[in-house]
From TrEMBL:
InterPro entries: Ankyrin-KH/SAM_domain, Ankyrin_rpt, Ankyrin_rpt-contain_sf
GO annotation terms (biological process): innate immune response
Keyword Protein biosynthesis in record: no
Protein name: Ankyrin repeat and KH domain-containing protein 1-like isoform X1
Coiled-coil annotated residue ranges, if any: none
Keywords: ANK repeat, Repeat
Keyword Transmembrane helix: no
One Pfam family named in its UniProt record: Ank_2
Superkingdom of origin: Eukaryota
Gene3D superfamilies: Ankyrin repeat-containing domain
UniProt signal peptide: none
Source organism of the structure: Drosophila albomicans
Gene Ontology CC annotations of this record: cytoplasm
ANK repeat coordinates: 41-73, 104-130, 131-163
């Protein structure tokens, strides 16, 4: 077997495959170059061709017996290399899909999920890729909304964490991926759980200065303790903010009571007006006296909402 190497100690076949030189690869294979020879970092010609998305070179190498399960010094396989670029050809050729690296414990599914290649993720899932939870955290860290949705449909656990990544929601919040965080929360993500250092998600977002993420979390997390820690004033934005204000100041209750009282007064006024006694009702409410000039007093209905009745001095 021939094994000529270049100045950076990478065999000639690997060098040709790395740049997609199909004719040279074919020529060397015909001259019996070792198709599975490795360079110093453990990579093979199939790995570098897969990483470069040179599909013609990949097919030629596979037809000459290139191994799909070789690993480099950090544990990456040709399939993982293909996953970085979203190339599905190697996955379709029967590669070992659940092999893990010894660098970050990732597999092909988690790599494709992090890089955001839903087509490849789908193929791997259909082929039996089993580490959905780690892949969900990876996709959340990469901000890949489509992949997150796909993994959840296939049964990934939304509140799980797999070393070395934390939970999907923490990955999304720590990397400021608002769309992913929203999706995870609405799908049942636990926003009240403590993160790795004991803080809350709201504290983490506030510490990063991520205002949009803080606003999102305040919609779902509005306890008094968290609000005091963050130091933000609530805004009127939906029922969650109203509930927040109710717990803090009881302002909501006061406003609602005033509105109910006004509605009751308008209702009573309407009933008396229908009976022809509107003038007398208005005078009793405003002045405590009787006045026969109904036209003048009907125009005073609006005062019921702004002024209190005045008693006539004796």
């Amino acid at each position: 077997m021939f094994s000529f190497q270049n100045q950076i100690n990478r065999p000639a076949l690997i060098e040709a495959a790395a740049f997609g030189h199909l004719d040279i690869v074919v020529l060397m294979l015909r001259k019996n170059f070792n198709v599975n020879e490795k360079c110093e970092n453990g990579e093979t010609a199939l790995m570098v061709a897969s990483a470069g998305s040179y599909l013609d070179v990949v097919n030629v190498l596979l037809s000459h017996g290139a191994s799909l399960n070789e690993q480099n010094v950090v544990g990456h396989t040709p399939l993982m290399k293909a996953a970085f670029g979203g190339h599905v050809e190697v996955a379709k050729r029967g590669a070992s899909i659940n092999t893990r690296s010894n660098e970050h414990n990732e597999c092909a599914l988690s790599v494709a999920s992090y890089k955001g290649h839903p087509d490849l993720v789908y193929i791997l899932l259909e082929a039996g890729a089993d580490d959905l939870n780690f892949a969900l955290s990876a996709a959340s860290k990469g901000g890949q909304v489509t992949v997150v949705e796909l993994l959840l449909e296939y049964g990934a656990e939304i509140n799980s964490s797999t070393f070395p990544l934390p939970s999907p929601l923490e990955c999304a919040i720590s990397n400021s991926h608002l769309d992913v965080a929203t999706l995870l929360i609405e799908a049942g993500g636990n926003i009240n759980g403590a993160i790795s250092n004991g803080n809350t998600y709201l504290m983490m977002a506030a510490g990063k200065g991520d205002q949009r993420m803080v606003e999102l979390l305040l919609v779902y997390v509005y306890t008094q303790v968290d609000a005091q820690i963050v130091g933000l004033k609530p805004h009127w934005r939906g029922e969650a903010y109203e509930a927040f204000i109710y717990e803090r100041t009881k302002t909501t209750t006061t406003i609602r009571k005033r509105r109910r009282r006004r509605r009751r007064r308008v209702r009573r006024l309407t009933e008396e007006y229908d009976e022809g006694n509107a003038s007398n009702y208005i005078n009793r409410s405003l002045c405590g006296t009787r006045n026969d000039s109904s036209e003048a007093n009907i125009g005073m209905v609006g005062i019921l909402f702004t002024k209190k009745p005045k008693q006539k001095q004796q």
